[in-house]
Amino acid sequence: MTPHYGRAHSRFPDPGQLNKRILFYTRQDEPIGASGTQAANQGACTVWGKLLPVSDTLRIHSFQINKTVTHKIIVRYRQSLYDSSQAVIKGVVYQIRGVTDIHSAGRFLAFSCEETSSQPERGNEFG
């Protein structure tokens, strides 16, 4: 049975399951020239975490509220990550849709994310 992080009956992940390097940052578009923008990413932080695809039920529900969720990312608690808007794992960009402190215990964070591209966006120096 797959644990559902964020629910009252879930367990914390085993630290050995945090086996992916995940780069979190806040995307900030800045104007360039007279008519363009460029991503100037801020607050970069790389941590160990776990990537989980969400169930079909959760994915369908997310479509209904116009906030698509395709994956969950689980990491050790770090207050500074609350401001992150994107995450990158092995070149795949995930748009963060929400974050939850699992059991409000200050031990792990669960990010609800949408996979948005298989290549970092142009101007993303963190790729």
TrEMBL record:
Source species of the chain: Candidatus Williamhamiltonella defendens
Highest taxon, organism lineage: Bacteria
InterPro entries: Phage_SPP1_head-tail_adaptor, SSP1_head-tail_sf
Stored NCBIfam families: gp16_SPP1 (TIGR01563)
Name the UniProt record assigns to this protein: Head-tail adaptor protein
Pfam hit, one: Phage_HCP
